[in-house]
Fold this protein.
Amino acid sequence: MKFVMVFLLLFSVSDVFAQNIEQAWDIVWTRFYLPKVQTFGDYLSSYEKGKEQAHLPTAEEVKRQYPNPCGYSTGMEDGAILGGAMLSVLCDRFAVTKDESLRAKAANVFAGLHRCVTAHGVKGFVARNVCPEDATSTYINSSRDQVTHFVHGLWQYFHSPLPDEATKQQIGVILADVAERMIAFVTPENDFDFCRADGTRCPLGICRMWKVQAHEAARLPMIYAAAWDVTKDERYRVEWRKYAAEAIEQSANPGENKPAYALLQMQCSLELLHALEPDSALKAQIHTRMLHVRDLAAKRFTSVLAQIAKKSSEEMRMLGPDWRKVPEWKNQKGYPNPQWGPFREIWHLTREAGESALILMMIDSPTLTNEQQAALKKLLERFDYTHNASCGLVYHLAAYWKARRHGLMAGS
C-alpha cells in the first residue's frame, strides 16, 4: 500500500510538472506571439484574451519614432532577441521529441526574423521588431544584443533538421547581408558602430561591435563566422579570422556582476565560435572562456532564485503598464524612456532565472549539480506561468528543453 501511495505521489508531481511546462509553451504562443508579424512582444499589460499587448505602439507612433528610436519600454524592444531565442528552443524541442508540428512553428518564427531584416528596406539591418498594425514600421535603432540572438538563432536553425533547402538559402542571404553591413559600417571612422537604419551613429554605444567590453568582444567575429559557415564565402572567413584570436583574448574577464542577459549573449557568441574554430589551441581557449561564463551564471542562478523566493505571488503576477501613461520618464542621451516602475524588477527576474539556467548547459558535455537540477525543476514546476507578464517565459522553456536535450532532466 505504501509503495502504491509513493508511486501515485510521484506520478502526480511529474504530471503537474509536465502540465506547467506545456502551459508555459501555450502561453508564449497565445499571449506573447504576434501572428500579424510572426514575432514576439516583450510583456503583457492585460491577461484578458485579445488585449494582452494592447499597449504596443501604433504605426503612426513608430513612424515618428515615439517614444524613442529604440522602442524602449514599448513592448517592441526585443523582438529579434526573442525570435532568435525561440528558434533555439524549437531546435532543442525537435531534437528531443521529433514532433513534426514544430516545423511550421519554426518557419513562422523564421518569417518574423526575416521581416525584421527586410521590412524597412535597409539591407543587413536587424530591426528590433515590426509594428503589428501595418507589418512594416520599425524603430531605427537596433543593438548588438539584437543581432547576437538573431544570428545565433538563425545559425542553429540552419544546422537543425527543421528548415527546407529554400529556407537555408534565405538564411545564407540574410547572414551575408548582415555581415556586409558590418564590413561597411564597423570601421574606425564610425567608432566601430554598425549605425542606425538611417545611417547615423547610435548615440547610446549599443551598436558598437569592436573596442567593447569583455562580454561583447566575440560578437563581431561570431557574425562573420556564421556568415562564412552558411555561405562558404571566403570574404567572411577572412573577416572572422581577422578578429577571432583577439576577441577571445579580450573575452577573458567579463566581470562578476554582469546581468544574465549579457552572459547569455556572450555564451551564444562563444558557442558559435567554438563550434567552428579550426585551431585546436584557440578552440580550447574558447571553451575555457565558456566554462568561466557558466560559473558566473551559476552564481547568478542561485542569486536570482533567492530574489524570486522573496516575492509574493501577487508581485509575481504583476502586469506591465501602458507605457504612455507611466509617471516617470528618463532621458537616455536624448532618448526619452518610459519607466515601468516595480514591474521592471518582476520582468527582469523572470528572464534572469531562465537565462542563467540556460547558460549552465551551453558547453560541451554539460552537467548540472544535484542542487542545480533540483532548483531548476522546482522553478519550472512551481512557477505560475498563467499569471506572469514577462517574456522571460521563453528562457524558462529554453532551459527546460536544453536540459531535456542533454539528458539532464527527465520528461513527463
Notes: Residues 20-405 form a domain with the Glycosyltransferase fold (CATH 1.50.10).
